[in-house]
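RECORD TYPE: inverse folding
INPUT: C-alpha cells
STRUCTURE:
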C-alpha cells in the first residue's frame, strides 16, 4: 500500500528524507539546469529572459502544474507518483510539453546547448516511459544523476562529486520505501547514460 502518513508522524530520518526529496524534485532540478544553461549562453538579459521563460515553462513548470492539478483532483495518488500505472500518462504529457518548447526555441534561435539539454530531457522521458510500462524506476534519482552528468560535461569532471547528492537522493527514496534498491540503481544508470550520451551527441561531441 502507499504510505500517506503525514510528515509530522514520521521519525527524524523519514523527515530528513522527505526534505531531500522535496529539494531534489525533478521539476526543480530541471528548472535550475535550464536556467543555468540559458544564462551561460545568452548574450543579453532579453535573450536570457525569453529563452529561459520558454524552456522553464514547457520543460518544468507546465508539467509540474499538470501533476499538482491531477493530485488535487485525485487522479494521481501523490506528487511522487508512486503508483507505476499512473506514470505513463504524465510522462507522455511531459514529453509533448518539452517538444513544444523545443519547437518554440528553435524558432527563437535558441543556443545549441539549450536545445541539446532539452533533447536529452526528451530522451530521458522516453526511456522512463518505456520502462514504466512494465516496471518502476526512481525518476528522482534518474533526474539527479542526469543533472550531475550534464554539469560535469559543462564544467569538468570535478562536478562528478555531485554523485554524492545522487546517493543522498537514492537514500531518501529507500528510507521512504518509495523504491527498491534495484529501482534506484537503475534510475541512476538511466540518468547517467542518457544524459551523458545524448547531450554531447547532440552537441557534436563537444561542449563550449
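DESIGNED SEQUENCE:
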Amino acid at each position: 500500500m502507499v504510505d500517506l502518513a503525514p510528515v509530522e508522524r514520521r521519525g527524524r530520518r523519514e523527515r530528513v528524507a522527505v526534505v531531500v526529496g522535496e529539494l531534489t524534485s525533478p521539476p526543480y532540478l530541471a528548472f535550475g539546469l535550464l536556467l543555468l544553461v540559458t544564462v551561460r549562453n545568452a548574450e543579453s538579459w532579453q535573450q536570457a529572459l525569453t529563452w529561459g521563460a520558454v524552456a522553464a515553462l514547457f520543460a518544468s513548470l507546465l508539467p509540474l502544474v499538470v501533476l499538482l492539478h491531477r493530485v488535487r483532483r485525485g487522479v494521481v495518488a501523490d506528487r511522487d507518483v508512486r503508483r507505476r500505472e499512473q506514470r505513463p500518462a504524465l510522462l507522455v504529457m511531459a514529453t509533448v510539453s518539452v517538444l513544444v518548447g523545443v519547437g518554440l526555441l528553435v524558432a527563437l534561435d535558441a543556443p545549441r546547448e539549450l536545445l541539446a539539454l532539452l533533447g536529452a530531457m526528451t530522451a530521458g522521458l522516453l526511456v522512463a516511459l518505456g520502462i514504466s510500462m512494465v516496471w518502476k524506476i526512481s525518476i528522482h534519482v534518474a533526474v539527479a544523476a542526469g543533472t550531475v552528468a550534464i554539469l560535469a560535461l559543462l564544467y569538468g569532471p570535478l562536478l562528478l562529486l555531485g554523485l554524492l547528492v545522487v546517493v543522498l537522493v537514492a537514500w531518501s527514496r529507500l528510507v521512504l520505501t518509495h523504491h527498491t534498491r534495484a529501482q534506484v540503481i537503475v534510475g541512476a544508470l538511466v540518468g547517467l547514460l542518457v544524459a551523458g550520451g545524448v547531450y554531447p551527441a547532440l552537441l557534436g561531441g563537444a561542449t563550449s
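NOTES: The two ends are 48 Å apart (CA to CA).
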